[in-house]
Amino acid sequence: xxxxxxxxxxxxxxxxxxxxxxxxxxxxxxxxxxxxxxxxxxxxxxxxxxxxxxxxxxxxxxxxxxxxxxxxxxxxxxxxxxxxxxxxxxxxxxxxxxxxxxxxxxxxxxxxxxxxxxxxxxxxxxxxxxxxxxxxxxxxxxxxxxxxxxxxxxxxxxxxxxxxxxxxxxxxxxxxxxxxxxxxxxxxxxxxxxxxxxxxxxxxxxxxxxxxxxxxxxxxxxxxxxxxxxxxxxxxxxxxxxxxxxxxxxxxxxxxxxxxxxxxxxxxxxxxxxxxxxxxxxxxxxxxxxxxxxxxxxxxxxxxxxxxxxxxxxxxxxxxxxxxxxxxxxxxxxxxxxxxxxxxxxxxxxxxxxxxxxxxxxxxxxxxxxxxxxxxxxxxxxxxxxxxxxxxxxxxxxxxxxxxxxxxxxxxxxxxxxxxxxxxxxxxxxxxxxxxxxxxxxxxxxxxxxxxxxxxxxxxxxxxxxxxxxxxxxxxxxxxxxxxxxxxxxxxxxxxxxxxxxxxxxxxxxxxxxxxxxxxxxxxxxxxxxxxxxxxxxxxxx
Length: 542
Known about the structure:
Shape: globular
Number of strands: 21
Distance between the termini: 37 Å
Low-confidence stretches: 1-45
Helix content: 25-40%
C-alpha cells in the first residue's frame, strides 16, 4: 500500500474550520453565482434547476485520475472517466459492464479477459481502443500516485483492439471490483502523451500530464471538465460524445463549503445538494418540506483493537483482556454517538458488502463475564487508548467515542487512560504497531469484501494491532481460500466464517458504521448515498 491509501484520507477538523473562515466571503460570492446560473431560487423550489449545484467539503488534489485517490476527486472523476467496470444503483456487490461489455476469468482467478464495448469515443471524438486501456492502467501503476497500489501484482496487455487481459501474480477475486475505481479510469492515450503523459516504468519521474489534466478532460464519461480549482469549485458540462444515456443535467457545479455553510446554502436554495451535514445540521432541517434527506449507513466503520504483541503489552495480548473488552462494551450506547441511521458493525465487512454479518451476530453486554475476565488478570487493570483528536468523519469525532468506551470499561474493572493526539503522530504510532489499544476507522480501498482481509493475522491492520502472520492458522487458511474462490455464494459463506472466527479469536473489535446523508432540494428529488462513489452525479435526475 501507498503510505496514504483511501482508508486514511480522513478530514482534519481544523481544516474544515479554516475553510469555513477563509471561505466566508467566497461562499457568499459563489452563492450569488449559483443563484444566477440556476433556474430556481429560494422562492421557487418546484422547478428542476438547469444547473445542478453541489456543496461538498473538498479534499480535492488533482483531476488526473492516475494521481487521484480522494473522496471529492472520486465523485468528480467518476463522472468524467469511464472504467472497465462499474457499480450501479447503490449495489456494491456485483460489478456491472461499463467500457467492458463482458469479461471471463480462469479457474484460479489470475487471468481476466475483458471484451470492450463497441462504438465508444472519447470526448474529442477519438475511438477508444484496448491500447488506451493498457496505457491508462500502466500509467496509474507507474506514476506511483496514492492509488497506484490498486495495480500491485497486476499486469495488462491487449491481444487485439477490442480485448484487454489483466493478469494477477496470485489469485485475486477482487480484480473486477478494483477496476471500477476512478483512479483506474481510462484516458485518451494520444492526448495524454501529447501533453507530457507516460506509462513507462519511469513515469513517476517523466510524466508531466497532470497540469493538462487539471484543466481539461481526456475521458469518455458523461461529463467533461470546464473549470477545476482545488479550493473553490469544479464545473462539469455534459459530454456530447458520450456513448451512454445522456445525464439529466447539462451543467454541474461542485463547490467547496464546510458543513455550516452547506446548511445555509441548502436552506436558501443556492445549493441543490449538500453532502456533509452532520446530525446537528440535519436536525435543523427536520420537517422542511422543501428538502429531502436520504440517509444510509456508510461503508466506513469504527473499531477498537487490543494489541496482540506481548512486547508492546502483556496485558492487551492476553485472551482474558480481550474477553473483558469484548463483553464489557455496550455497543448500543456507542451507536448513539453515531447518529440516526448509523448501524452496528457485527463484523469487519460492512453491511453493504458480500458476506456481511447480520444482527444474529450481535454481542450482548455481559458485565459479569467481563468482570470475571478482569479478575483473572488480577483485577483493576490499566490500559492506554490512543486515538486522533483532530479529525472527524460523518460528523463524528473520536473523543466522545473514546470517553464512552472508557466509562463502560471502568464498570468492569479496566481503567482506560485516554491518549488523544494529532493524527500526524497517532497515525504514525498506529502504523508502527506501538499502540496498546487504538480507536480507528477504515474506509474501503475498493468495493469488495476481500479488502477486509487486511484485518486478519499478517494483514495491514492485523500487523498494526500486533497480530502477525502465523498467529491463527485457521483464520489464515480461510483468508487464503477466499483469495482463490470465484463463486459468489461460496465467497459469501467464507466471508461469514472468516468474520465469525475473527470475532471469536481475533484482536479487532468492530463498533459501528456511521450514517451517510445526502440532502437534496425537492426540485432535484431524492438522491441516494452511493456506497462506492459517495455520489453518482450522472445518475441524478434519472
